[in-house]
Amino acid sequence: MSTPAPGLREQRKARTRKAIQEHALRLFLADGYDATTVERIASAAGVSHMTFFRYFPSKEAVVENDEYDPLLIEFIRTQPAELGPLTALRNAVVLGMREVYDTDKDALLARTRLILTTPALRGRQWRNGDSTQRLFAEALATRTGGDITFELRVLAAAVLGALSTALTAWVEGDGAEDLPSLMERGFDVLGHLDS
Amino acid sequence: MSTPAPGLREQRKARTRKAIQEHALRLFLADGYDATTVERIASAAGVSHMTFFRYFPSKEAVVENDEYDPLLIEFIRTQPAELGPLTALRNAVVLGMREVYDTDKDALLARTRLILTTPALRGRQWRNGDSTQRLFAEALATRTGGDITFELRVLAAAVLGALSTALTAWVEGDGAEDLPSLMERGFDVLGHLDS
DNA sequence: CTGAAATTGTTATTGACTACCAACTGGTAT
DNA sequence: ATACCAGTTGGTAGTCAATAACAATTTCAG
């Protein structure tokens, strides 16, 4: 179902999609986000601007990466039920991030820097954070068979705040520090917010 | 300096600015954000669309409200130094919010609902949250004469997450619950994130 | 091989936003 | 009062993101 028979059609579509995304990233990093027009990206990828918008709903969307969320959700669900929600979330995040980080570090740094330094993309990212918060709260709730409570939503939002702070600090330090460690530090802070 | 001699010119400018903002809000609430063009707002306010952009950098910006931040910063700074940062922030936020809430509740609800239900505005709001986080961290740091640390930044981000969750829940309940109380509940959750 | 469906390109349109220039208005010096 | 100057405004034209309509092309199924 996730792979609906890889006919010639699907292969071409996948190739086109990847081409658009790669050329877009390359041009954004080279010339800047605002200075790169959709028309330019499309022609670099060998398609028309109409086709661009058939593959991505907006210019901003081409930078997004939805791969992480499903992986994280799975990690959250499989955490032992006796763990508290913060610990479960911490384990899942560190687990997932370590994997991405070790294989994709440079690309992740470039992409994150691009997002954080481009106002339009920063807004978009946070807008996604909103749905990520919902996903986190939901995963935490189903893990213990409970409902999504106000408390879980606040926890998910706080964790996202900590994670985005870690990402920001990581980029500010030009990727010199270990990102998963920064995130663990963020979780540590959340665990001692009693003063 | 904040009032550069109220000559006729300044008065006119202030009046024009307010007229644009009020007509914009009215039209947004009546017809929806996307269905309202800048041209329409401008003509309703009796100016050209060029003048609109001379007063506001974008269509989104006309919905913003920068009044709260300086007030909050002041409240944070004047909290007793012996309080922990979370408590200081809590007191300041509840103090400031109570004041706004008791005088502007209906307008606040309408405006917040508009922002939360309009994707473009939601993104914008979070983009501001980024600078608000910096302001919070800075205010907390100067309060005790210290530097802006990673810990303070995480704390500020977590608080903003809790506050936005409270706002969201408040709008979801159509303003039936007491917003400051919801925010206090959010702070309570943050104070017990040890599990 | 032929027809149905999906994919794409061309063209045109809307709307946010900017640049440029000409007209006007409030404040100021004479 | 007059004339001058700076700040404010509007009109026009332009760019760019995003959408719609239609025609041409290509893939797949029978």
TrEMBL record, chains A, B:
The keyword Transcription applies. One of its GO terms (molecular function) is transcription cis-regulatory region binding. InterPro entries: Homeodomain-like_sf, HTH-type_TetR-like_transc_reg, HTH_TetR, MftR_C. It comes from the Bacteria. Residues 37-56 bind DNA. Keywords: DNA-binding, Transcription, Transcription regulation. Transmembrane segments: none annotated. The keyword Transcription regulation applies. Residues 14-74 form the HTH tetR-type domain. This is TetR family transcriptional regulator.
